[in-house]
Automatic annotation (TrEMBL):
The keyword Transcription does not apply. Pfam families: Acyl_transf_3 (PF01757). Keywords: Membrane, Transferase, Transmembrane, Transmembrane helix. It comes from Candidatus Collierbacteria bacterium GW2011_GWA2_42_17. This is Putative transferase transmembrane protein. GO terms for molecular function: acyltransferase activity, transferring groups other than amino-acyl groups.
Amino acid sequence: MENNTRFTKLDGLRGLLSLIVALNHSFLVIVIPTFANVWQQNPFIFHGLQSKLQQLFMFLGNGGAAVTLFFLLSGLVLGQSLSRTKMNFRGLTSFMVKRIIRLYPVYLFIVATTAIYMKFGFIYQTFPYSSSWFNWWMNFQMTFKELLLNIFFIHAYIGGVTWTLRVILIVSFIFPVFFLINKKTSWWLDILISFLLIYLSFTLLNIEGFRDLRYLYMFYLGLMIPKFKTLFSMASNRLVSVILPLALIPLLGFRYLTNEYQGGVVESIISFFLIGFAAYGNKVTALDFLNGKFFQFFGKISYSLYLIHFSVLYILSRIMFQSLPNLPYENQYLIIHLGLFLLSVIIATGVSFLVYKFIELPSHVLSTSVGKKISQE
């Protein structure tokens, strides 16, 4: 495990994934015809240009696949972090405290901002052309009890993607065990463990009302990636350049033909190789675009943007439905979705940069300082 290596392509990948999640949410706001959706729809049936382009944007904006990639990336990063951690009580306490300090401040900002928004003038509404997905959100009373339930992740009703942050925090407590196992195992035994965790995700870990543990195998797959460094570093650029575009089709489309859990397995396997090539594929140039300034910038603010964009999109959409009830939602849903995406990303990017600068960066500095004090006491 490389202790001090910074995988810049993975930073760019995070930026790309945060934009994919934003695209996913933006194209779910307005009610669309069934044939314009991607879930359980035959992509080869043509109903019209608008519906086909809507499907294409939803296909490219597969937020579920992006979350799968985020989970594998987290597994890789957690493994790197633990490789620099003393595996004793102080070391593990330092590891967990650092994780909480790094992750919580931006989330608390989202929760506090949402609570203020809901307490001052917000009245839950549905609209004639708002989708069931849009209508599901914010349909609760922001009491002090509800605020606490969301702060401690007992509920995850705020922010669209906050449930994934709960998964990451829960896995962070379990991950040291994974790390110790991974240090002792060979690559083939790791593959067997991964298959076992996949099997458990559909059986023992399939707990009604609590799906968080179903994603454990994704984090373990991310942890495994460095053991296959030689494989990734020897890969031919020509071969990867041919296979990668073909692999994107099941990566982005399989869950739409099955369900999110079966799709998650296929996405995880493809993501394993995608991340491996991005991190260790020295001969692979197909992913060099991730080192570009555009994706590096969004990679820098990806965590803040990932959490903030939904709230910006929700408020924008609500203003649109209230102020512009006569827009041609039924006939021009594609262009309206596209406009929502562009405007919400522009606004959310500005807000996210400020949050990154004044909340996220200071929390990283604080986490490092506190972590050192705990581990050295």
